[in-house]
Amino acid sequence: MRKLLPLIGTPSGSHPGGRSAMTCRFRCGDACFHEVPNTSSNEYVGDVIAGALSRRSMMRAAAVVTVAAAGAGAVGVAQAPQADAAPAGTAAETARRTHKGARGLRFAAVAPNTADAVTVPEGYRQNIVIRWGEPILRGAPAFDPEKQTAKAQAGQFGYNCDFLALLPLPGERNRQLLVANHEYTDEVLMFRGYDSANPTREQAEIAWAAHGLSAVVVEGDRKTGKLTAVPRHQLNRRVTATTEFRLTGPVAGSELVKTSADPSGTKVLGTLNNCSGGVTPWGTTLHGEENFNQYFANSGRATDKRYGIGTGASERKWERFDKRFDVAQEPNEAHRFGYVVEFDPYDPGSTPRKHTALGRFKHEAATVRLTRDGRPVVYSGDDERFDYFYKFVGSKRMRHGSGRAVREHNLSLLDEGTLYVAKLTGDSPAIEIDGTGKLPNDGEFDGSGEWIPLATATADGAVSHVDGMSAEEVFVFTRLAGDKVGATKMDRPEDIEPNPVTGKVYVALTNNSNRGVGSNAKADEVNPRNANKHGHVLELTERWNRPESTRFAWSLFLVAGDPDDPATYFAGFPKEGVSPISCPDNVAFDPYGNLWISTDGAQLGSHDGLFGVATRGERRGELKQFLTVPKGAETCGPIIQDRRVLVAVQHPGEIDGASVEKPASTWPDGPGTYVRPAVVAVWRADGCDIGV
Fold this sequence. Notes:
It is built from 10 helices and 36 strands. The protein is globular.
């Protein structure tokens, strides 16, 4: 029996999903404590699947040789302040003990732990790539948290990274271009003596500058996997909450998005709460505006309630310093957030765009596939309990080349096409699903699904496919459109990623502690458990494996939790050979098609981490923990390259009662310093590929 460590610093059951009260306040505006925004009677995804072994999985598992259980072997712990200390053991020893793992996952699994450090496998090393506040633009001063200004922060790396992208930099050897989201700010960890009831204008303006995006060139060490930032490079850039954006697509110029400051309805200041995203085949990055609702105050409209916008003051009280955050004064400003942002990191003078054709909701991600004829398909989840997941199928083909005309054409690809929402159907009678994870009689947890069209945007206008709603209303009030067409309610759909090797699409469903509680719908064939605190992962196969298809098949890939819990499931792989995992959030793929999962709010007594799991072959379902993050932190933005793994360590020290004066974590620089979100690189000490 595996013994898990008690959770440090977070009272058990204090907040849904294992998050601290501080996380709920600053990240999502206490979303879990608000009334569930979706009050429609649509079918619940958790009422459509349930987790357990399939007959095929049982047959395959019988032939599998069990690997070492999670926690076997030594664990590498990087201690502050160095943050790059070498773990015990050698790469050769690690290889000998893990040679039976799936290719790309041959490392000694990190044991569950509560170390205030980034803990990596034996034989691996790490370094801090860049921290909050490090100067990246010319003229930006060195970080001094005691004398911080908005001007300084606007030239420094922002706060709380989520999505990360590493792009090639032709002509500059060993260099790449790192793009990072800055989701939100933790004012109580940023400002000494912060008074949440009376923030100052300067504090608000610093927070505006700490939001947004960063582009920074990074350089790799040719002898190791170490990665360091290159300050003052010509491509380095900061995008903040006050940077000008261009509103594009069917909503641009609509009466629904015009404000007193922008009567044209085409220019928006800033981007907020950027969560996960994606990289386009034409070389730009996409960024999902997620919990934008928390920044707006004083609303009384039903449409705003559906998005979680409150009737009183906001947590940060920005409405005191800029009326655009006060819905009572600027009712349309909130309609200008909640979109997918496109950013061109190779053009420092370009204006970022908000693509309204992809719909307005709490976008967790925006990942792109191309159809066979070169049209983009974008998948995105709406991170809310009982909300939906979507895809957009473009109507214009991508062009190849590097000229200005080609670039402009490709930047318009996401403005024309059709937006769809998912509806899933299970194949087992509802009476066979009891909410405990017990198998239905057919021994399978699968079914079919359809993509329901919501609206189509063209160069000549837009057409609604939803009765009673105009096309503009569909794109601005997309959640209501999903309600009307009967989309399937999901347990917080977050990152959605197509596997570049197989084409299958994976959906991370983080958790939903409200399932089956009170009057909320109980589990069925898409969500296997009531009070779902650990989450699960779905695997979708588009019909004919064509991303533009309007039909798909789905099956359960993983039901998270302690493997000793009979309600958990790991694609049929023997559970004594996998790591415990809870609350899947961001996902990514390595070159071998293995799925890598980062977690947020783990409920098993260990810190959050990064996990790799095989998606095919005889070791399908073999899940191993690759690293854990420090106290109070979340694992974000994983990038899995041949010889390097990158993660964003978001909100370290974010534990109830923590402050600058009373830090809960000393990561990454040790006692006496401010706790700072940062990006970390991990590599093999012997220079070989990850996990081989």
